[in-house]
Write a structure and sequence with these properties.
377 residues; mainly alpha; 80% helix; 0% strand
Length: 377
């Protein structure tokens, strides 16, 4: 029997890839703030700098479109899983801000390359224009991976230190990525082409990707850091919070996919941004910790609205343009991400945390206005 028996790429293998990558990413996400604060004692400005470094690979997301000219999306995705796990191990070894940045950068290259390649792989796999339901299932797989990873971190940190936890789970993710690289067949058929395309008709899609990047990276950088730095929640509380968020989004991501097909992309995009205005204002002005936990969960639920944006580009783009469009959108999403974490950290230190979250509220309000321009097809 061969060690690596080839398997056809289907929705199940896409889900398995997704589970593995997001398992590792959740391990990093749950442990990072507590590890950085408790072990390396970093400041808000420093955490903003690290998070900006983390987003550099997203800024280079267009490279996946170029790489896809020569390498199948499934191979890019599986190699990205390996790279993400390697970065997780390097974070575990970090004993300085510099080394923390290096490990985070490696992990991030894997994560962001996976986002472009796996999303393109999924949308190529879906044969109809209605992609919401299948996207919802894959997004729910992300949440399931988050639930299991959070439980693993919660249990592991009772017995081991942050370094051991990061190193072990990073090694597991890397090994699975290597296995998938050798076992999954190419998703391409002979003669199938990919193009690098930056066309005017995709402009609104790129702008919305940019604005959603602004919103996402203010949240991912400062929401948990606010709870750790200002309200002193410990790693167990952080893990439980991520656990409940992921349990809930297993259901809500499926629901979001169905709502996209029922209500259309415009309603989901604009409606989610409308709600986010109030959530960001809540972070700024409400000091009752249980309600802040609710805001955190709601924010995670609304990340599922990205299904609507992918559904929109699936409908307006040609098949040969799709991978290129998604990779360019990752770049657009992360142009702000390289700047906003540092800017938000500086605003926090100069004007207080309220100003950082009010800035986020203004961004999502503008995103809501532009989302109303999305045409329902």
């Amino acid at each position: 029997m061969k060690l690596f028996q080839k398997q056809e790429v289907n929705l199940l293998t896409i889900a398995l890839n997704t589970f593995c990558l997001f398992f590792g990413f959740t391990v990093w996400r749950v442990t990072f703030n507590n590890f950085a604060k408790e072990i390396l004692d970093i400041t808000p400005a420093q955490i903003g700098m690290i998070q900006s470094i983390r987003e550099i690979p997203g800024l280079l997301g267009f490279m996946v479109g170029a790489l896809a000219l020569y390498l199948a999306e499934v191979k890019i995705a599986t190699l990205s899983i390996f790279l993400s796990g390697l970065g997780l191990m390097l974070v575990g070894y970090a004993d300085s801000i510099f080394m923390l940045g290096i490990g985070t950068l490696v992990m991030s290259f894997g994560f962001h390359n996976f986002l472009s390649s796996n999303n393109a792989l999924l949308l190529h796999f879906i044969r109809t224009k209605e992609s919401g339901k299948d996207q919802g299932r894959i997004k729910s797989t992300e949440s399931l991976a988050g639930v299991i990873a959070t439980l693993c971190v919660l249990v592991a940190t009772f017995f081991f230190g942050y370094r051991e936890v990061l190193t072990f789970f990073g090694a597991v993710v890397s090994l699975v990525g290597i296995y998938f690289t050798f076992t999954l067949e190419s998703n391409r058929v002979e003669g199938e082409e990919r193009k690098i395309s930056l066309k005017r008709r995709y402009f609104l899609y790129y702008v919305l990707s940019f604005l959603r990047g602004c919103r996402r990276h203010i949240f991912t950088t400062f929401a948990i850091f606010l709870l750790v730095a200002n309200y002193h929640i410990d790693i167990s509380t952080t893990a439980v919070l991520f656990f409940f968020s992921n349990v809930i989004t297993i259901y809500t991501n499926n629901l979001m996919g169905n709502l996209v097909e029922r209500w259309g992309e415009r309603a989901i995009l604009a409606g989610s941004s409308f709600l986010l205005v109030f959530i960001f204002c809540g972070y700024a002005y409400i000091g009752w910790l249980p309600l802040l936990f609710v805001f955190f969960v709601m924010d995670n639920i609304l990340f599922g609205s990205s299904i609507a944006l992918h559904s929109y580009i699936r409908k307006i783009s040609g098949k040969s343009d799709l991978t290129s469009c998604i990779s360019f959108s990752v770049t657009a999403n992360h142009i702000s991400a390289v700047i906003l974490p540092v800017l938000g950290g500086v605003i926090w230190e100069l004007l207080g945390f309220k100003s950082t979250f009010l800035f986020g509220a203004a961004i999502v309000f503008f995103d809501m206005l532009l989302s109303l321009k999305v045409k329902t097809i």
